[in-house]
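Please review this one:
***
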Amino acid sequence: MGQASKVNWVKLASIDNILAAFPNLKSDRNFKITSDEDHSYNCIAWAAIRSNIFWWPHQHANILDGIEWPFNLPFDLRLETFTKLYENLEYEICESWEYEHHFQKIAIYVHQDNCTHAARQNFNGLWTSKLGVHEDIFHSNPFTIQNNEYGVATRFMKRENSSYDVSKIKKGVLIATSK
């Protein structure tokens, strides 16, 4: 068996695992794996267009290698805490997940009163998620990845496409904005 066959088998196994965990993706025509597994970032950071940091409210976050919790936020999983995280990045609460020109949206997922996941809407209207430390995926809407682990998309937030500059976010701190 050649190396190419081995790589294809690994990707196929990943697709099968993802579809088993997120059965609604089976009927999502836009479902696509868009990255390899990467332990250096997670969905919370990925929703904020960060692919070089792992954000999670662990009490030792700033001591553990690669894990941070920005903006001096409380170390808890409450929806209000995660909302404040994204408000620090110029997002505001909105009612709809649907695409709006000139806005970028995120969805925050809650299961049993704890935040579990965040997804981001791309500028083309498709959604992207980082599945734990595993692959990034495209999906059509925030509801196709709801399940018993992630829970449901509970809060939607948006920011103007031109209201932020990703280069000004360093170590989880928004340095300056240009509004």
Notes: The CA atoms of residues 94 and 157 lie 5 Å apart.
